[in-house]
Design brief:
This protein is mostly helical and 326 residues long. The chain has helices at residues 3-14, 19-31, 35-47, 71-81, 84-100, 129-132, 134-139, 143-157, 183-202, 206-224, 247-262, 270-280, 306-325, and strands at residues 124-126, 168-170, 175-178, 233-234, 244-245, 293-294, 302-303. The longest helix is centred in the middle third of the chain and has 20 residues, at 183-202.
């Protein structure tokens, strides 16, 4: 682990976290091979599990798919320790998604229980959800459901002109809430499909893996049409008046390294990832905080975020794996 990775990891573990943030940060340390920290984070996600099964909930119980981002590390904690508390918690999270989570009339899981936007329903599909729930569903043996949810989100969100995914669609009123090609959202989708592909391959479900490889490669190629010279993207991919940010680029780079390692992506893509890795080191301050990314808490302006730091660690962890494989 490089000194910058150590700095970023330390900063990441220091930030306050909502369910999706706890999940992606825990996943990052798991993918780095830091099982001790991953189990500790899984444990806290279990302590904050709601009665019906949602993990890592710290405020009002509005998130539907975000809590599932914690699911893999909770299951891995069970595999590592054999403790029933983690097995039960993971199964409760799965049961919530399969039986209790609100869905659209097309049976796609809604992202939240409420709408944040006046005049819209709560039956909304957010692009973020492709990362949050499907990999966990796949890990827990529900690969067909994972594929169904990913393809359902794509059907709602895809922009036919660019091949990219819009941010938020309201299936209750049949209109977009945020019809913008949000860079980080497309990055979330790439990472979610990458994780699900890996699980499908491990389970010899090549039928599912091949479909997701096709979806994700198409999305990757569409994103690369908008990649800037230094590897980053505009926050809204097709809007050069929006700010330049790095989270989506690091998510894309992590996807590329994973794809090359997994054999589903040509090594010809590596240059697109390498320039991201080189660029983003410039935006890490002395505390390990990454700047010039889509910033929390509202993700409408440049700032800092937990997912940027998690994506940096994932990107570098898979780069290191690729170097060892070469």
């Amino acid at each position: 682990m490089t000194e910058k990775m150590k700095l970023v990891k330390n900063a990441m573990l220091a930030v306050q976290r909502y369910p999706w943030e706890q999940g992606v940060c825990a996943q990052a340390v798991w993918e780095m091979g830091d099982t001790l920290t991953a189990v500790a984070m899984a444990h806290d996600a279990v302590l904050r599990q709601t009665e019906e099964g949602r993990l890592a909930v710290i405020t009002n119980n509005i998130a539907v798919t975000d809590p599932a981002a914690n699911g893999e590390v909770v299951w891995r904690a069970y595999e590592l320790t054999g403790k029933e508390i983690y097995k039960t918690a993971a199964e409760k999270m799965l049961s919530y998604l399969m039986k209790l989570a609100p869905r659209t009339d097309k049976n796609v899981i809604c992202h939240n229980e409420i709408s944040f936007y006046e005049g819209f329903s709560e039956k909304q599909i957010w692009v973020d959800a492709i990362y949050m729930a499907p990999p966990f569903l796949a890990l827990m043996g529900e690969l067909d459901e994972a594929l169904f949810q990913i393809e359902g989100c794509i059907d709602y969100l895809k922009d036919d002109n660019t091949g990219l995914l819009n941010h938020i669609y309201d299936a209750g009123t049949n209109r977009f809430v945020r019809q913008k090609l949000w860079a980080t959202g497309n990055g979330w989708a790439l990472l979610g499909m990458a994780r699900t592909i890996e699980i499908a391959q491990k389970e010899n479900r090549n039928d599912i893996a091949e479909k997701l490889i096709a979806h994700s490669k198409s999305l990757l190629d569409s994103m690369l049409e908008y990649q800037l010279e230094d590897g980053r993207f505009y926050d809204i991919l097709d809007d050069n008046t929006s700010f330049i940010e790095g989270t989506a680029a690091m998510m894309l780079a992590a996807y590329i390294y994973r794809g090359i390692i997994g054999g589903w992506l040509s090594g010809n893509y590596i240059g697109y990832a390498d320039k991201v890795r080189c660029t983003m080191d410039k935006y890490i301050d002395e505390f390990g905080i990454i700047h010039e990314v889509c910033g929390c808490p509202h993700f409408l302006e440049s700032g800092t975020s937990a997912e940027s730091m998690a994506s940096y660690l994932m990107m570098n962890a898979h780069y290191d794996r690729l170097q060892k494989q070469s």
